[in-house]
From TrEMBL:
Domain Core-binding (CB), residue spans: 7-96
Domain Tyr recombinase: 117-314
Gene3D superfamilies: 1.10.150.130, Intergrase catalytic core
InterPro entries: CB, DNA_brk_join_enz, Integrase-like_cat_sf, Integrase_catalytic, Integrase_recombinase_N, Tyrosine_recombinase_XerCD
Keywords, sorted A to Z: DNA recombination, DNA-binding
A Pfam family hit: Phage_integrase
Source organism phylogeny: Bacteria, Bacillati, Actinomycetota, Actinomycetes, Micromonosporales
Family, similarity comment: Belongs to the 'phage' integrase family.
Top-level division of the source organism's lineage: Bacteria
Name of the protein in its database record: Tyrosine-type recombinase/integrase
Length: 336
């Protein structure tokens, strides 16, 4: 029988990922877990030196992990290093619970502070409306136009703040409640469910989409347990297909220059949150509606919005004229 200290790291990583899969994370998240675990384990094996395939768990000492993380961190952004540290911390927590190791060494391995990502909403005050208007038109230049479906996808992100994985998990029966009291039940990140109110306008967009779907594929394709979002063949949309759909909507609306780099569909969710903050929503309200795990993430939208408001006031032409009148002098800080 193999001693626990000789158990192979790669095999234990696969056990950990299999256990995590029960929580239904996105495939992208599981790939990120594997990538971070294998990358750091590979650095430990290289320093040992041992083949990664035969690296035993006993080789993952505190000293070895410190050295590996120092090397891992050198070319990477703090957010990437923090994510890897968190993944390894969860991995060792799993191993301790399983009796493979006696303790978790990650508390002795330095890590950057947890980053609070800056919001990346669509740029331009009229951009969401311009996007929806353009996509709602039946563009015959498209090979397979389906404006009702495309508007529904954009509206769910812009008016309910749903993530890509949450959109893909929606069923027709996820929407419940009487007219004007409609809501959508969302399977949130990390297994955290939430309920988001659905206003009559969004409800009407979804009904129009489902009616168009019945005409295309028949009423039997719109059962309550059916996937809400489907492709042009009536099959459930997948991650790549949904991403491509949103990108094509940006191109059709001519707003690709207004989409923050790397945001894509998430820019729609960030636009929803930013507009909530602009219209006076509290951090706790934003946290609940978007399914944030941390209040700090929600507060970030309010802080950024306040900064944008001050920048807008500073750019006011009357303020500039006043500055010219005063010869560039600033008013005392205690005078209002």
């Amino acid at each position: 029988m193999q001693d626990k200290e000789d158990e192979r790291v790669l095999a234990l990583i696969e056990e950990f990922l299999a256990a995590r899969a029960a929580r239904k994370p996105s495939p992208h998240t599981l790939q990120a877990y594997r990538r971070d675990l294998v990358a750091v384990a590979g650095l430990v094996a290289e320093a040992a030196p041992l083949p990664l395939a035969t690296l035993p768990i006993s080789a993952l000492t505190t000293r070895a992990l410190r050295t590996a993380f120092a090397t891992f961190a050198t070319p990477r952004a703090p957010a990437s290093v923090y994510r890897a540290w968190s993944t390894w911390n969860n991995f060792f927590t799993f191993l301790v619970a399983d009796g493979v190791v006696a303790g978790n060494p990650m508390s002795a391995v330095d890590r950057p502070s947890a980053p609070v990502p800056l919001p990346k909403p669509l740029r331009g005050e009229d951009t969401p409306e311009r996007l929806l208007t353009a996509v709602a038109r039946d563009d015959r230049r498209q090979r397979h136009p389906w404006p009702e479906r495309d508007v529904a996808v954009l509206a769910l992100a812009l008016c309910a703040g749903l993530r890509l994985s949450e959109l893909l998990a929606l069923r027709v029966g996820s929407f419940t409640g009487r007219p004007r009291e409609r809501r959508v039940e969302v399977a949130g990140k990390g297994g955290r469910p939430r309920v988001v109110p659905v206003e009559p306008e969004l409800d009407a967009v979804l009904e129009r989409y489902l009616d168009s779907r019945r005409r295309r594929f028949g009423a039997h394709t719109v059962r309550t347990d059916s996937a809400l979002l489907v492709d042009r063949h009536g099959e459930p949309l997948r991650r790549g297909g949904l991403q491509y759909l949103v990108e094509s909507c940006y191109r059709r609306a001519g707003i690709t220059d207004r989409v923050p780099r790397g945001a894509q569909l998430h820019a729609l969710r960030h636009t929803f949150a930013t507009r909530l903050a602009e219209d006076g929503a509290t951090a706790s309200e934003i946290m609940w509606l978007l399914g944030h795990a941390s209040l700090a993430t929600s507060q970030n939208y309010i802080d950024v919005t306040a900064g944008q408001q001050r920048a807008a006031v500073r750019a006011n032409r009357t303020n500039r004229a006043l500055g010219t009148l005063l010869g560039g002098a600033q008013a005392p800080a205690d005078e209002a």
